[in-house]
Specification:
Its main location: endoplasmic reticulum. Its EC number is 1.14.11.2. Residues 1-21 form the signal peptide. This is Prolyl 4-hydroxylase subunit alpha-1. The chain is of the alpha+beta class. The chain is 49% helix and 13% strand. It contains 19 helices and 18 strands. The chain has helices at 2-14, 29-76, 78-82, 85-107, 112-122, 128-144, 149-154, 168-180, 184-199, 208-221, 225-238, 243-284, 286-295, 304-307, 321-324, 348-358, 394-407, 439-448, 481-485, and strands at residues 312-315, 328-334, 339-343, 363-364, 367-368, 375-376, 381-382, 384-388, 417-422, 427-431, 490-497, 503-504, 507-509, 514-516, 523-527, 541-543, 546-548, 551-559. The chain has a nine-stranded antiparallel β-sheet, with helices on one face. Strands 7-10-16-13-14 form a five-stranded antiparallel β-sheet, with helices on one face. Bound molecules: N-oxalylglycine (OGA) and fe (ii) ion. Residues 431, 433, 472, 541 line the site of fe (ii) ion (FE2).
Length: 575
């Protein structure tokens, strides 16, 4: 018991409470670029301060030199020196006014400009939550992309333009953040990395004793007693008087002895439970594993036979007059669910306009907390988004028309164009775009032989997790068109890629093992619902975390209402 208390003190001593209400900056690169400009301004004003301080020191130096010479001559022959009336006058003047002026100069504060600039800018600085958010994003990337700690620390990432590395102190900081999350796996990795860099001779203010203290605790928490002991020994070599480490050492020895005794009797039973928990763990996260593999470009489930049936073609929107003379390039990305990609479908100029319109309005995407019914931010959706209406810009309106022409679906019932920006680590975990499908609507279908867009059917946004862990209905800044306007469910998704992504950021479909890579100027399209109105669960998808670079997309969710004759209903439910 006494030794348990000891660890308890370790924990209390280190744990800092963090709140997650304001996790803003790190979610999108758009806003982080402002911070880069802020830093640039600060550097300029810091340099001005240095210049002012240097010129002040220069003046003081000159005065000292002049007086040095003068006093040298004067002290050699004071009477002769003062025999000259000008010298006598000058001595009076110097002592009465000039030394006083010098005193003022020495006391003069040159830092005003810089300090006031700093005070103004500080209001817009990221806070603790931002720093934690950015750190957690790094840890998330490390997992998703299977990056080893050393690679990440040395900044050896694919496609990076500006290589950057982590110092031992940075690694220590990451370890501490993992620690406050009780994430001992990452605590160990990062404390070990910090230690490694110090062992390799990196000059740093990071303290090995502190690092070893965290490290041994994290290792102990993960059940590796002998390694924890070895690390504590190392700590004690550096600081033999370290109280907690001495206590822990005794505790380890005691536990080891006890374990040895217990081991004699029950090894088999333990093995069994260990195996069971391992199996459970694996079963519990199949989707996560599939999702992360697809993000890394692994686990694609396309057979050569099926691949042969994927084509590319010129598409005229089913003889749409606007596209007969200039059809667009269309490629099959996947067969089931059918996902098609349009190439060169949005120009660079249009992309710039859309981004500029969206930028001032980007705000952290939120989701409904199913328990409280309130809007919150969620780790599974990390991005910033904004909505653009066709009324506010001819470009947006033109884009909407293009989607209507090429999908053959009515866009008047669609949601506004959503623009989203994912910064490094930005992601959207697996979800469906459609809301809950009401069973009544399908009954209605069979009775009336009509589309399922009956008055009964209202996508129930806000009721989270009916089928799966993360539904993306209940989106904060989404117009509540679903309920109020009764436009039915999200029948289809159109997704523009408005940037290339240096690494990561794919759109993946874990149910079917598909991944679609962002390519600037292209768009993908798929139906979320079967013609019967039933949700197509194979459309479950996710936006992989951005590893390097930044991802801009915009999407249009088309709704059921208005499509009655454009995509007629079938009688079979899952056809
Ligand atoms: C979405 C979505 C995919 C992507 O916003 O609902 O699934 O790649 N986005 O951004
Ligand atoms: Fe989606």
């Amino acid at each position: 018991m006494a030794s348990n208390k000891m660890w308890y003190t370790v924990a209390l001593g280190f744990l800092l409470p963090f709140s997650y209400a304001h996790t803003d900056f790190f979610t999108s690169i758009g806003h982080m670029t402002d911070l880069i400009n802020t830093e640039k301004d600060l550097v300029i004003s810091l340099k001005d301060y240095i210049k002012a301080e240097e010129s002040k020191l220069e003046q003081i130096k000159k005065w000292a030199e002049k007086l040095d010479k003068l006093t040298d001559t004067a002290t050699k022959d004071p009477e002769g020196f003062l025999g000259h009336p000008v010298n006598a006058f000058k001595l009076m003047k110097r002592l009465n006014t000039e030394w006083g002026e010098l005193e003022s100069l020495v006391l003069k504060d040159m830092s005003d400009g810089f300090i006031s600039n700093m005070t103004i800018q500080r209001q817009f600085f990221p806070n603790d939550e931002d720093q934690t958010g950015a750190a957690k994003a790094l840890l998330r990337l490390q997992d998703t992309y299977n990056l080893d700690t050393d690679t990440l620390s040395r900044g050896n990432l694919p496609g990076v333009k500006h290589k950057s590395f982590l110092t031992a102190e940075d690694c220590f900081e990451l370890g501490k953040i993992a620690y406050t999350e009780a994430d001992y796996y990452h605590t160990e990795l990062w404390m070990e990395q910090a230690l490694k860099q110090l062992d390799e001779g990196e000059v740093s203010s990071a303290d090995k004793v502190y690092i070893l203290d965290y490290l041994s605790y994290a290792v102990y928490q993960q059940g590796d007693l002998s390694k924890a002991m070895m690390l504590t020994k190392r700590l004690l070599e550096l600081d033999p008087e370290h109280q907690r480490a001495n206590g822990n050492m005794k505790y380890f020895e005691y536990i080891m002895a006890k374990e040895k005794e217990a081991n004699k009797s029950s090894t088999d039973a333990e093995d069994q439970t260990e195996k069971e928990t391992e199996v459970k763990k694996k079963d519990y996260l199949p989707e996560r594993r599939k999702y992360e593999m697809l993000c890394r470009g692994e686990g694609l489930k396309m057979t050569p036979r099926r691949q042969k049936r994927l084509f590319c073609r010129y598409y005229d929107g089913n003889r749409n007059p606007r596209y007969i003379l200039g059809p667009v390039k269309q490629e099959d990305e996947w067969d089931k669910p059918r996902i098609v990609r349009f190439l060169d479908i949005i120009s660079d100029e249009e992309i710039e306009t859309v981004k500029e319109l969206a930028k001032p309005r980007l705000s952290r995407a939120t989701v409904h907390d199913p328990e409280t019914g309130k809007l919150t931010t969620a780790h599974y959706r990390v991005s910033k988004s904004a909505w653009l209406s066709g009324y506010e810009s001819p470009v947006v309106s033109r884009i909407n028309t293009r989607i209507q022409d090429l999908t053959g679906l009515d866009v008047s019932t669609a949601e506004e164009l959503q623009v989203a920006n994912y910064g490094v680590g930005g992601q959207y975990e697996p979800h469906f775009d459609f809301g809950r499908v009401s069973p009544v609507s399908c009954l209605h279908l069979f009775l009336l032989h009509k589309r399922c867009v009956s008055l009964f059917q209202v996508a129930n946004y806000g009721v989270g997790g009916q089928y799966e862990p993360h539904f993306d209905f209940a989106r904060a800044n989404e117009p509540d068109a679903f309920k109020e306007l009764g436009t039915g469910n999200r029948i289809a998704t159109w997704l523009f890629y408005m940037s290339d992504v240096s690494a990561g950021g794919a759109t993946v479909f874990p149910e079917v093992g598909a991944s679609v890579w962002p390519k600037k100027g292209t768009a993908v399209f798929w139906y979320n619902l079967f013609p019967s109105g039933e949700g197509d669960y194979s459309t479950r998808h996710a936006a992989c975390p951005v590893l390097v670079g930044n991802k801009w997309v915009s999407n249009k969710w088309l709704h059921e209402r208005g499509q009655e004759f454009r995509r007629p209903c079938t009688l079979s439910e899952l056809e």
